Amino acid sequence: TAGTYYDNQAKQGGAIYCLGTLDISGATFSQNKSNGAEGGAIYADASCVATVENAIFDSNYGTTAGAIYVVAGGEVNCENVAFTKNTSPGNGGAIHTKGTYTDHNSSYTENSGKNGGAIAVLGGGSATLTGTDTTKALFSGNLATGASNSRGSAIFVNSGSCSVTVTGYTF
Hints:
The protein has about 170 residues and is an all-beta fold. The chain has strands at about 5, 10, 15-20, 20-25, 25-30, 35-40, 40-45, 50-55, 55-60, 60-65, 70, 75-80, 80-85, 85-90, 95, 100-105, 105-110, 110-115, 120, 125-130, 140, 145, 155, 165.
């Protein structure tokens, strides 16, 4: 669904909590917030299969995952998405995945999180990022904010059971 999701709040998934199939194209998510939990804009549960295309995630906030949180078993596929100024005091300023996250030609700019300013991959999760357009596929100005122990201003991978593949992105 297209449209604007602005200034929504929930415990999980400030704008959307996904339990099934979700298709989003041309939407803007701005200033959404998860109150004390995950996914400032979207929470993808274990049964969720989400596709997000040509969208903007700007200035969303989640205790974990400023923009999108993916639970183990959940799947989120993004293409041509701009993630800008999303924040989390936990892991993953824009994205936190314990499930499957794939991306094609998205930008991650000025996001911030404790570990993984843009993306955090934990708990056996996976992330595959493929860039074919260097004007879109980039990481710029992201910040890991952990006081004494911050890691991965662009991407944080927590353990050997996680997998991350990045091709064609500019850092």
